[in-house]
Predict the structure.
Amino acid sequence: MSHPSEAAQGRPAMVRLGAVARTFHPGTPDAVRALDGIDVEIPEGEWVVVLGTNGSGKSTLLNVIAGTFGLDGGTIALGGQDVTHWPEHRRAGIIGRIFQNPFSGTAPAMSIAENFALASRRGRTRGFRPAVTSAFRAELRARVSTLGMGLEDRLDTAIGTLSGGQRQALTLLMATWHDPGVLLLDEHTAALDPRSAAQVQALTADIVQGRRLTALMVTHSMPQAIAYGERIIMMHRGRVLHDFRGEARRRLGVGDLLACFEDARRTPADDVPPSPRSAVGTD
Amino acid sequence: MTLLIGALTIGLILALAALGVRTSFRIFGIADITVDGSLTLGASVAAVLLVGGSAGPLVATLAGFGAGMVAGMVTGFLQTRCRIDALLSGILVMTALYSVNLHIMGRSNVPLLHARTLATVADAAGPDWFGGGEVALGRWIVPAGDLALLLMVAAIVVAVALGLGWFFHTEIGTAMRASGESPQMIRALGADVERLRVIGLAIANGLVGLAGALWAQVQGFADAQMGIGMVVWGLASVILGEALSGTTPLGVALTATVLGSILFRLLIALALGFGLNPNDLKLVTALFVFAALVLPQLIARWRRAQATRRAVPGGGTGP
Ligand SMILES: Nc1ncnc2c1ncn2[C@@H]1O[C@H](COP(=O)(O)OP(=O)(O)OP(=O)(O)O)[C@@H](O)[C@H]1O
Ligand SMILES: [Mg+2]
């Protein structure tokens, strides 16, 4: 795993996965090895795109990092801290998350302001102070107005009445209200129409690149992967099949990725190598 | 008129229980039957303290609140740490509380004959407040003590409802409201959903215990049976309140629950006045909740059927 791209060289690891494994329904005929020994190290500030066929374990990977699912084996460290046994809500102090379903990331019956108030306490104690103060509201107005959606005048509207695109844009602001150590994005534009998807993707790039966040983004869109992934990981059957970084990543085109998918499809389960065919390019 | 004041007083007291039931029902989506036991628990704890003379009305009432909270925490613990089904957790705690309450009281009924209670305090204060043993309200003459009691209870209910509204707008209360609706989101935002549920059920049952403590003082005794059917009563009040107001915003919804409880109590008093057999009370309450839950579905189905019939020329009859 020690092939850091030149940009990443010298930066400490923000995410370190060691032999991470997770099987669903173990010991039954339905047993699924969703993650089968994942070793990945992500340096601080790297934007990683995760690709892979349906069921290859991408969402499970994000879920074990967030702590939604526990591990059968292996270790997870975030920002140098071993969090393998931390519950999800404790890891949330380090992690910002956006789900594929716009409904999952917000409390629909609550107002925009209240949703943001909840997000502003991510990883902090929640006490008996009023959730929405006038100072907070002012700050919120300023931040929401950067979206250019006119939502700053509707802070008391129930967030569930907004469109999926508006909600995902807001969820992105919520997850990054305080800079997260790691931002996890699981097909967060997949449920949106093309125009909203492009808008949310552009906003994602602004935030992740503008603030140099460490991010893992799952997508099925090759152009999106090529356009944004500083590093591209392709998963297959619970393993990392390819790990493109540095020069190899820069030379990569949509055609190459499609070829990788074809290749993966033809590879039977047992032929997936336990460690990735790392491609870093010339040193 | 005295009857009306009595019904108002009890309706207000039970509004506290209805606020508790609303908390578990609307936030966590469970009809928490623990309240059947925690109402009696609040009543028996308060009654025993008052009869023994070891506490005044204020402390006894607060003790009822605290006892209810403990009951709610046990239910929350069963639901979260022991992963027992929400309904079953409530049933287990309610059943256990039946014995606990009998132990606390030492028998099935504790009269508050010579104890100083909220009611006796009101009886003493009434003539002072209104300058005489009786007060003329328009054409009606009512005992000053009864009126004072009504005002005291109303003040308590207003204070509690305001407190609850305040709590639900704090950081922790906001997180609690979101945790029932969107557990995935709130976990990702770092809140411990299970802890919030335990706290929420503690508050809900604390309110019910508080209602029990006040009710015992107003009716002059605590009884092992007094909590039976409380959850259904609470649901009836919540549903009636929502029918009057809609569900948002929160302040309106809380007020509506209080009004729902009062209204329901008045309706019951009226029905009893018209000769409803008191034995049928619980049946009527259950039927009301049943109807409130089922009628909207039936109406929706009927509307759909109407719409289909209109859309298909020649009516909706088959081939
Ligand atoms: N909660 C679960 N219970 C049982 N099996 C699961 C669960 N979650 C995922 N799986 C299984 O684990 C495997 C990996 O699923 P995962 O959702 O991680 O795939 P994915 O790469 O995100 O796929 P997609 O592109 O369709 O989103 C699949 O076979 C899936 O059926
Ligand atoms: Mg997925």
The longest strand of chain A covers residues 13-24.
